[in-house]
Amino acid sequence: MRRQALVVGVEGPATDPADDSPPSWQQLIFAAPCAQRVRKAPEKEYAYVLLEPDHDPASTAAVLGGALTKAISSAADFTVIHLLAHGVPTRNGHGIQAVGGDGRLTEELARWVNMAENQDTEGSGDPAALLILDLCHAGAVVTQHLRSLVRPERRRSGCSPPASRSRTPMTAA
Q: Which of 47, 57, 58, 79 is placed for a possible disulfide with 67 were both Cys, Cβ 3.0 to 4.6 Å?
């Protein structure tokens, strides 16, 4: 059984010392050290293979998106992805995008949730991936995903996001 993990902590774009305007994003200076601590557990405690992308996924939104796609679409039996970054609601307010290290936005994170959901698990019914999204507004991903799985005429429960919809990631608290 091949188990793998991708752990990414995106501090966000560096501020320009020559620019006096307030930064668009407060740097998450704890993101990289937190990711380094989190990376130790899957490898040492549970024998997961840590994914080491060719380029640092925390560098740009495009590289982050590529690393997520590669991790989700790999032939592993199980993949854990832990992403710690700034999150921004999509324009329609029903989804979320991560902020890359370059200040640009990834695609909507539901894209990767759907990729994981649609993977063939050889009829086992077992999940192929666990996405731990430690981002501002992360509950929007879960809420939207659960709504898409339930037919409106049979909905009998509400959804509660796993984290506050506040602007602060859980690990900052």
A: 57
DSSP 157: -
| Structural domains in the chain (count) | 1
Using an 8 Å Cβ cutoff, are 73 and 81 in contact? no
* Coil vs helix vs strand at 42: helix
Q: Tell me the CA end-to-end span of the chain in Å, nearest whole number.
A: 35
Interval 80-117: pLDDT, tens: 899 999 999 888 877 889 999 998 999 988 888 878 77
Q: Which residues contact 62 (CB under 8 A, 6 or more apart)?
A: 100, 104
For 132-170, b/e burial (b = at least 16 CB within 10 A) is ebbbbbbbbbbbbbeeeeeeeeeeeeeeeeebeeeeebb
In terms of residue numbers, what domain contains 8?
3-14+23-172
Question: Which residues are bridge partners to 134 per DSSP?
Answer: 84
pTM: 0.76
Judged against a pLDDT cut of 80, whether residue 17 lies above it is answered with no
Contact 33, 10 (CB under 8 A): no
pLDDT digits (tens, 9 = 90+) for 126-171: 567 888 888 887 776 666 555 555 544 433 223 334 444 444 444 4
